[in-house]
Amino acid sequence: QVQLVESGGGLVQPGGSLRLSCAASGSIRSISAMGWYRQAPGKQREPVAVIPSDSDTKYADSVKGRFTISRDNAKRTVYLQMNSLKPEDTAVYYCNALARDYYSDYDADYWGQGTQVTVSS
Prior knowledge:
This protein is mainly β. It has strands at 2-7, 10-12, 18-26, 28-39, 46-51, 58-59, 67-72, 77-82, 91-101, 108-111, 115-119. Strands 2, 4, 5, 6, 9, 10 and 11 form a seven-stranded mixed sheet that branches. The chain is elongated, with a radius of gyration of 14 Å.
């Protein structure tokens, strides 16, 4: 099994910054794409940023120019640097990984537990 643990969420004022981290652990054979999703109250979970195995990053239009996704394959960790935060960024942020463990021939989706990001004055 693959486990994902997020950290770095919290309360920040508009215009502030936060850096989220997500570390993968377990019987990992390989990790393909990793990404961040978020879910605001009353809304569906939506993709924020993804970084495939080819490192061709993709961002939601609402965060382009403000958020940066990166990954450290040696540490099996993905990061989300969030700058110029807005109240509408308030949500639970979830880490996602498309990974394969040692006991499977196929990739599967794994999710973290989520970390709360609140942007408010």
